[in-house]
Write a structure and sequence with these properties.
There is one protein chain. By secondary structure, the protein is mainly alpha-helical. The protein is built from five helices and no strands. The longest helix is centred in the first third of the chain and has 12 residues, at about 5-15. The N and C termini lie far apart (about 60 Å).
Length: about 90
């Protein structure tokens, strides 16, 4: 096997459709519905902290939703599930 072949194998393994990058929403969080999990990745690697920070800065749910281009009810529901205070 050449270096080029092993490089291609790694790229197939890690690339789109590979076995390490699941096509379903990950990780599963028991406190969130499937609908909320679909949008959670948009908030980055630490979605709860991200949402709490933006709420602490005084952004409203519509402002946060507009920034991330998600429905307002998703932001509102995430704040309720995670008990994040602030202006709704």
């Amino acid at each position: 096997m050449t270096d080029n072949e092993s490089c291609l194998d790694v790229m197939r393994w890690l690339g789109p459709g590979g076995r390490l990058l699941p096509s379903q929403v990950q990780p599963k969080r028991s406190e969130l519905t499937y609908e909320l999990q679909k949008y959670m990745h948009i908030l980055g690697p630490t979605p709860k902290s991200c949402l709490a920070t933006l709420a602490d800065l005084g952004l409203s749910d519509p402002e946060i939703a507009r920034y991330f281009k998600v429905p307002k009810n998703i932001v509102t529901d995430l704040r309720q599930v995670w008990n994040i205070d602030g202006e709704a």
